[in-house]
Structure formats: C-alpha cells, structure tokens
Amino acid sequence: MSEEQKPGQIVILNGTPRSGKSSISGVIQHTFDGVWMNMGVDRFMQMTPECYQPGIGLRPGGERPDLEPLILTLYLAMYESIAAHSRLGLNVVVDVGHHDNYSVPLGIVPKCARILRGLPVLFVGVRCPLEVVMQRRIATWKAGYEQDGSVPKPVRLWQDVVHFPGIYDLEVDTSVLSPEACAGLIRQRLEEGGPFTAFKHFEAID
C-alpha cells in the first residue's frame, strides 16, 4: 500500500442466520459514499464446491469435524481477500456468523483479526431475538418449529454461541430497526470516527 493510498473501511456484521445481516449489507453497499464491496458467508459458500458445503456456513455443534480444517482455511482466505481489498482503497462490508462451537475450538476470529491488523475495522453485532428469527425462517424457508413445538437445536445453538464473547464496536437489533435504520447507525458510528477497538482485542488472543 503506497503512502498516498488510504485503506478502505471494513465493516463486519456478525449475527445468526436470518438476523438481517444481508439486508444491512445491501443498504451499505448501495447508499454509502465510495465503492463498497459486499463479501461474506453467502458469497464464499457460492464459491465452495458442493462436496465441501456448507463451507464457512458450517453450523455450531461439531456436526462435521472432517470439514473443520478446511473451514479455518476458508475463513483465513476470505479475510486475506478482505485485507487486500482494503489495502487497495476499497471499502468492504462483510456478513458472517462467527462461532467457535466446533468439535474442537478453531480460534478463527483471533486469527482473522491478526490478518486485518493495521486496517480500519468496525465490528458490528447484529442481534435478533429467537422468536423473530423463527418467524423469518418460516416466512423464507417454510421451516419452523419441531413437531413438539420446540426450536430446532441448530437454531438454538446459533443463538447461544454466535455473539460470544459479545465484544463489538456497535450493536444493532433488527427486530426493532429496519435495515436502513441499522445502516444509519453504522454510518453515524463511522462518521464519529475511531478508535474502533473490538478487533484489536481479538488480535491479542493466542
């Protein structure tokens, strides 16, 4: 990166499936000033061969330990790409569902944070209550509660682990705020300026 080249801003949206991350990403890409590249879990899953699916979308619970070494590699590759875009002056919005509830801990976030060391990163927690997530799952996939009325185990696990340890620069709740309103809070936080410290916390974890 040349001395004249200012790195692009990185905004990472972390939350469960159906929490509204993709909608916020779209608003950011289409309404924020400058060039915003839209990256994240869905796009990397689309690039992943079918035999290795769900790739970085692997659910919590240790269901596929055979895939876990590849999951770490894919995450590192994604974050290397994010870093490359930022260093070239491109802004990047990323939607992910980070967790470490694999068959063995993989320490993905600290490893990824070190890749972004020295780059401007705003880490946003996208929260959504479980009952709203279930409503959205039913509306989108016609997949809801179990026959006994309980929430499916993978959905509960996502809700339990995706926000651990809950260290963010900003949090938004999509059950009470529209994607536009969430993006507005993110814009406001960026305009206020740093320091953004959440990812710096993870950099220091071994």
Automatic annotation (TrEMBL):
Pfam families: CPT
InterPro entries the record matches: CPT, P-loop_NTPase
SUPFAM superfamilies the UniProt entry points to: P-loop containing nucleoside triphosphate hydrolases
Protein's name in the database: Chloramphenicol phosphotransferase
Organism, as annotated: Paenibacillus physcomitrellae
